[in-house]
Design brief:
The protein contains 5 helices and 6 strands; from the N terminus they run H-E-E-H-H-E-E-E-E-H-H. Strand 4 and strand 5 form a beta hairpin. The relative contact order is 0.15.
């Protein structure tokens, strides 16, 4: 019998973060929610992008408390994970999508916090598979979020045409607006990185 047939719990989405401070001390925090309908990387990555953007704006370093409070706060139409999760999503057969997030103090030059992301997706059945996607830095994470949301917009518009259902159009519009916003964060992080490199190049020339 397949393990998926023995499953007693609903498939989960898990967002787990390891947050390091300036001393190298690491604290961990995890949150979970049902995988359907919004527990996916596509719909939950904007919350991470928004958190990184907020830290940059407020000139704060990440902390497990800030990350949890931000993620648990329901600020839009897409629900976020609220259930405290104390396991390890990487070894949980019920976790079909895991955002494994590594956060560190803000870069003194760009002002953006250190961030690494691994998206682990696993599906069970007759042909089980796993897929891991990795991104390093706010710019790359925001770009990935924008790409996923743009693809979701196209998928939802196809379904809207097939089923003549306006609810898919509304969701598609939400995905596109989130994609546009994530791209603005990407552009801001890119501009800061370019500015820092230009300043370094100018300093080398004037020596």
């Amino acid at each position: 019998m397949l393990r998926s047939e023995l499953r007693l719990h609903a498939p989960l989405f898990v967002a787990q973060a390891a947050v390091s401070n300036h001393t190298g001390l690491t604290a961990r925090a995890g949150l979970a929610m049902p995988a359907a309908p919004f527990g996916s990387a596509t719909w939950q990555l904007p919350a991470l992008v928004a958190y990184l953007h907020r830290l940059h704006q407020d000139e704060e370093d990440p902390s497990p408390e800030l990350w949890r409070a931000h993620t648990e706060r329901q600020t839009g139409p897409v629900p976020r994970p609220q259930r405290r999760y104390h396991g390890n999503g990487l070894h949980d057969p019920d976790a079909v999508c895991v955002l494994d997030i590594q956060l560190g103090p803000r870069d003194e030059e760009t002002g953006w916090p250190a961030a690494d992301l691994a998206v682990i997706e696993q599906e069970e059945g007759a042909c089980p598979f796993g897929r891991v996607t990795r991104r390093h830095g706010t710019e790359a994470i925001a770009a990935y979020s924008a790409e996923e949301l743009t693809a979701e917009h196209a998928r939802l518009m196809d379904r809207a045409r097939q089923h003549q259902d306006a609810s898919f159009v509304r969701l598609a519009d939400l995905a596109q607006r989130a994609a546009d916003w994530a791209d603005k964060v990407r552009a801001a992080a890119h501009a800061d990185a370019v500015h820092v490199q230009a300043e370094k190049a100018r300093a080398r020339i004037t020596r």
